C-alpha cells in the first residue's frame, strides 16, 4: 500500500510532489526505451498502434487505480495521453527501422 506522510507545510507538500515527479519522469524515460525496442518487433503500423493492447492497458491501470484509491479518471486520462504520445514515437522509430532495412 501507499505510505503517505502528513506534511506540516506547503513546502513539505511541494517537496514530496517534486520527489514524485522526479520518479515519474525517470519511469517514463525507462518506459520509452522499451517502447523504442518494441518497434523492431512489429511488422506494420497496425501492430504499432495495437488498439486492443491499449485497451488492455487502460483496463489494467484503472483497476490498479481503484485498488489504490487513486482517481481512476485521472489515471485513465494520463495513460491515454502517454500511450498516444508513445505510439507516435514508436511509429517514428518503426519508420526509421524499416528505412534502414530496405
What does this structure look like?
The chain is mainly alpha-helical and 102 residues long. The chain has helices spanning 10-38, 45-49, 51-67, 72-100. Helix 1 (10-38) runs parallel beside helix 4 and helix 3 (51-67) runs antiparallel to helix 4 (72-100).
Tell me the helix content: over 70%
Poorly predicted regions are none
Our estimate of the beta-strand percent is under 5%
Average residue-wise pLDDT: 94
How many strand segments? Answer: 0
Note the total helix count. 4
Helix- and strand-based class?
Answer: mainly alpha
Task: Give the oligomeric state of the chains in this entry, treating copies of one chain as homo and distinct chains as hetero.
Answer: single chain
What value does the Rg take, in angstroms?
A: 17 Å
Question: What topology does this entry show?
Answer:
Layout: H1 10-38, H2 45-49, H3 51-67, H4 72-100
Helix pairs in contact: 1-4, 3-4
Provide a concise account of the structure shown.
The protein is built from 4 helices and no strands.
Notable traits:
102 residues; mainly alpha; 4 helices; 0% strand; elongated
Amino acid at each position: 500500500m501507499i505510505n503517505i506522510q502528513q506534511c506540516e507545510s506547503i513546502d513539505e507538500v511541494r517537496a514530496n510532489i517534486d520527489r514524485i515527479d522526479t520518479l515519474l519522469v525517470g519511469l517514463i524515460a525507462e518506459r520509452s526505451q522499451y517502447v523504442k525496442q518494441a518497434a523492431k518487433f512489429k511488422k506494420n503500423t497496425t501492430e504499432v498502434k495495437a488498439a486492443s493492447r491499449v485497451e488492455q492497458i487502460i483496463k489494467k491501470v484503472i483497476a490498479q487505480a481503484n485498488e489504490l484509491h487513486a482517481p481512476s479518471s485521472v489515471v485513465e486520462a494520463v495513460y491515454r495521453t502517454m500511450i498516444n504520445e508513445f505510439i507516435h514515437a514508436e511509429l517514428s522509430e518503426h519508420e526509421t527501422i524499416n528505412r534502414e532495412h530496405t
